[in-house]
Amino acid sequence: MKVLSFSPELCVGCHICEEVCSDTWFKTTDAAKSSIRILDDGGEHLRAVFCVQCGECIDVCPTKAISRDRNGIVRIQKKLCVGCLSCVGFCPYLAMFYHPDQTEPFKCIACGKCVKECPADALEIVEAETPALSVTEQWAARV
Amino acid sequence: MSEKTSNRRVLAEYVYQPPAVVHGYAGQTLYVNVSDNTITARPVTEEMKQKFIGGRGFDLWLLWHGVKDNTQWNDPENEIVISSGPIGGITQYPGSGKSLVAAISPLTDIVVDSNVGGHFGPLLKFAGWDAIEVQGKAPTEVIVVVDGVNGRVTIEEAPDAPVDTHRLGHWLIEQLAESEEDRYFISTVSSGTGAEHTRIGCLNFSFYDRRRKAPRFKQAGRGGIGTVLRDKRVKALVVKSPPVRGDSDRPADPQRVAQAGMRLHKEIHDYDDSQCRMRHRGTSYLVKIMNDYDLLPVHNFRFGSHPDADKINGDVWEARFTQGMVDGCWYGCTLACSHAVDDYTVRTGPYKGEKVIVDGPEYETIAGVGSNCGIFNPDDILEINFYCDTYGIDTISFGTLTAFVMECYEAGVLDKEKTGGLELRFGNSAAAIEMLHQMGRGEGFGRIAGQGIRRMKAYFAEHFGADPAFLQDIGMEAKGLEYSEYVSKESLAQQGGYGLTNKGPQHDEAWLIFMDMVSNLLPTFEDKAEALHYFPMFRTWFGLVGHCKLPWNDIVPPDNRQTDEPAKIPEHVRNYVDLFSGVTGREITKEDLITMSEAVYNFQRVFNLRLGRGRREHDAIPYRSMGPVTVAEYESRAERYDKQLCEVLNLDPTKMSTEEKLAALRKHREEQYERLKDAVYQRRGWTRDGVPTVETLRRLGIDYPEVVAVVQRHLR
User: Residue A85 is nearest to which of B261, B268, B328, comparing CB atoms?
Assistant: First the structure.
């Protein structure tokens, strides 16, 4: 499956990726509505937070609103989401985001817009192995 | 929802426009009378919201006005009232989907209240009703259907509907869901055939498990409310609501609610694995701890531990529960403790051979029907759990009364002739299971046992010549309700926690055993009295708002021990302030949580008085809950008891017989409990007779004329 990848040593901290992401998906430039965050921990390089499609949230969602699409990308079906934010609390990468303007959380879906706009080539979409089936997916296969 | 079968017949119909929920309230309650088929709407007043909040508060307020002073549990005037609460139905915070039920109990003859999971209460609210009252007695068996999608409430004859829950739950979904998605927002309340033949009937509240594609059931266990439902000839209450959304409660400040939720989700993610492991093993984690601290009920609360306890502890259940499922009983509960054993093949009885989902077992069931009865085989516990649920029988009352029966059998009070062939010794699971089936069929010794311990004591004394004093000592009931599964013998605080409740010895109000016996935080009378004020009030609060108390203290922040009052879990208390203020828009402080509860709690105490009980004498407890009754019990803890006689009473145990030591210890402990009553009543603003004073009622704003009139009859 395709997944976003970040090279910290190349990043210049311009935050254009955050603007592009929030503009693409929320029609506004607001880092709080971006699915990629560039953070300064005070170290040598900046750190990027975004979904790596690990799929741990799939087994935490009470309504099975979270599933992999045919490209292996983890997607939220808004229609099924009840806004419980369990996935936000349980994401091991803190990469599931909440904004008060909507009840459903949001995350990176590896669309590649930020990759195109990054002036430092610090972002790319790479091919990764799809993780093992979640318990949810195993149970869905049960007759 | 169309009538799929022709033998469902609508007897009455009420059409309505479901109001939008605003800040946690729909603004009206539903009244249904199955005697005369009346269905009406009643307004929720500002006074109700201010004083009674919701949940148990609304239940008690509505029940007070529905019944008379002399209403018995099986009069048509008795009501079953169910309500969630203003912060019930939010999805962001763990434990937000509880329902509160109240009725006059067939066991205690006063009001029993119960806090139960499943989806019914919140879906009822989203269908347009803050509460439902069911009064009357139907001439023929009926179901009540609240359709919040189409705005229609119906009372319907349903002669084909099964009675036992695991069958009825499936039947109702088949009848009423047009599609798989429809099933998500249907919830049912039902009981079973066991409730019809006993006083210990429970209610089963369903939620639809989307992964298992089946309904699951949580229990409003205590007090026999299932028996009341069946007495009214109601097979089920059903609600169908529009889809639940993250803002269905229309909170005043959704961000404040969301922030609290995300904080707790993260805390559970980070720490549950190393704390209680609720997500993996549910409340079964308690078995090992109770056993280690000598607090696990064994053989009718005689002992506190057993070498076979490891056969039924949390490790065993973690292996039996299907892992990785979202086992919350409402959306967004990441504490997720509602586990199940899947594909369990039923071994006995009318459903033998069926593959079923067993909901549980919870700690109380494991300890009650397991260790307390000397049963240490997990499959036996599962068999009893399954049948209690489907028959609509409370596992706690079943466990504690079976333990009583077993001790009576071993003491020679009962024998095979008297039990109709059931050799009800400790550990005889086959006999216990057969007795349960008798309760389901309404036959044999099961009919007698199903009356509960209080009535069994009278029956055994009258018909079998048993010594009533012995039975009184070992029969673990108070106010008529069986004890839940903690050995309170060595904890004066927990004796009060059980004995000084409104409804009977249920740990809903106070669970002070840990604070007292493990953490040693309550050394003085004043400490105990203060705890017996704060914690029942704090725990009551969950029942006013539609919440579960497990996310309050079955997970704690890592720095909790460094706070100034770790037993209160201060960070979580702040969360609840955020939730209440965030949803209702009513800014409160943490002190307000207590005052809100005090009003409802005292109202319930006065309700008990109104029904003829509720005084000091009614807070009596059996001696088995306070200390060793028998020589064997004394000797099982001789060192501890001898030390107490020596240090506290200045006696020399080496010069005393065991009988003399038993008597001396008993006198001391009984006096201690009386002193505790004095301290607690004073702290609660009650007289020495346990009656709320008019000043207390005034302070709490519940000095309504009819309430004051009740206490004045008892104030001298």
Answer: B261
